[in-house]
Amino acid sequence: MKKTAKFAITSLAAGVALAAISSTAHAQQEWTMTTTWPDNLDLIKIDQHWVELVNQLAGDELQINFRAGGTLMPGTEVFDATETGSIQASGDWPGYWAGRNPAFSPLATTTSLFNGVDYLNWIQQWGGWDLYQEVYGDYNMVYLPYGITNNESGFMGNTPIESIADLEGKRLRLSGRDQGRVLEKLGGSQVTLAGGEVYQAIERGVIDAGEFSTPGVDYNAGFSEVADYWSTPGWHQSASVFGVMINKDAWDELSEETQETLKIAADATMAWSLAWSERQSTEATVKFQEDGVEISTLSAEDLATIQDATNEVILRGACEDPMHAKVYHSMISYMEHYASWRDITVPFNMTRSIDNLPSLEEIEACM
């Protein structure tokens, strides 16, 4: 009996110790996260949606303290802060980091190529997710894409742009390295401004026209108050991706279950963001029209010319950097592969049917 009791006590002690170790291993962690977006830009809602989901789903193991862009540091500094671990995470738009690696540009957006469903397909099923990990991984980060919006509004200002001929000599605010190169080929010049500066730049005539994001975001930023004309479609950013940069060391400290929870929250936010943005864009378009903004649409011939210029810019960039080439090679391979099904479903297909894509062979020659 004594031996049995002693064994039971020893087993109980071991169980308590094991439970304590297990509890310590899964103790709640706290992260600090910021973003590139200030409170007055609606894109911050995508970051907030993901954070709220994570805090609900993984609250026992992880709580994220979210701060709006600019409250902890300038938006330009969040990449370095996340890379070094000064903060654990930050929301971003990958195109802001194209100066570090041009591959960030197509990870953020494309000119006259992907729409929102293309990005969703590519990220989820055609190898896109792995490429985000490869590019951000070089900077000690894990990346979870969690936001997709369809094409940008287009250009708004007080000078009508009804054809690409009207771009000649115009100063236009737009983001993205590849986007600026296409604009230059069309005769315009790129002006780089922070999102919060576009309103005043249009109002004061510093730029001939400008853009920031989708119609919903642009309307809430007040563009209808300062712009008389709106040129569509937003060919320069045919879709955009947003996500969260996570310091690799902080990520590795999470349990596999919590890591999976963060991925699930990212997938859910991605689906939500696309529908949210499309609803918001629809309502804003009606408001722009009610406010008297005059809308024009480029012709099919002009859009074909833009596609030609885009293809040249993609090939040029591919031969400047092998990682840039690798990302575009994957994207165009997806477009060609998906066409097998996509093009026999017209007019009910979900993504664009394009018969003029950059040459995969020429991209491969630069890889």
SSE blueprint and pairings:
Elements: H1 2-25, E1 29-35, H2 44-57, E2 62-66, H3 78-84, E3 89-92, H4 104-108, H5 116-125, H6 128-137, E4 141-152, E5 155-157, E6 171-173, H7 177-185, E7 189-191, H8 198-203, E8 209-210, H9 215-220, E9 229-232, E10 234-247, H10 248-252, H11 256-290, E11 294-297, H12 300-318, H13 322-342, H14 360-364
Helix pairs in contact: 2-11, 7-12, 12-13
Number of helices: 14
Strand content: 15-25%
- Mean of the pLDDT scores? 92
Largest sheet report: 6 strands, mixed
Q: How big is the Rg?
A: 24 Å
Distance between the termini: 75 Å
At the fold tier of CATH, the topology name of the largest domain is: D-Maltodextrin-Binding Protein, domain 2
CATH superfamily of the largest domain: Bacterial extracellular solute-binding protein, family 7
The best one-word shape is globular
Report the order of strands and helices: HEHEHEHHHEEEHEHEHEEHHEHHH
User: What is the CATH architecture assignment of the largest domain?
Assistant: 3-Layer(aba) Sandwich
What percent of residues adopt helix (DSSP H or I)? 40-55%
List the strand order in the largest sheet: 7-6-8-5-9-11
- Uncertain runs are 1-25
CATH class of the largest domain: Alpha Beta
Structural class: alpha/beta
Descriptive notes:
With 367 residues, this protein is α/β, with parallel strands linked by helices. It is built from 14 helices and eleven strands. The chain has helices at residues 2-25, 44-57, 78-84, 104-108, 116-125, 128-137, 177-185, 198-203, 215-220, 248-252, 256-290, 300-318, 322-342, 360-364; strands at residues 29-35, 62-66, 89-92, 141-152, 155-157, 171-173, 189-191, 209-210, 229-232, 234-247, 294-297. The strands form two sheets. Strands 7-6-8-5-9-11 form a six-stranded mixed beta sheet. Strands 2-1-3-10-4 form a five-stranded mixed beta sheet, with helices on both faces. Helix 2 links the parallel strand 1 and strand 2. Helix 2 runs antiparallel to helix 11 (256-290), helix 7 (177-185) packs across helix 12 and helix 12 packs across helix 13 (322-342). Mean pLDDT is 92; it is low at 1-25. GO terms for molecular function: metal ion binding.
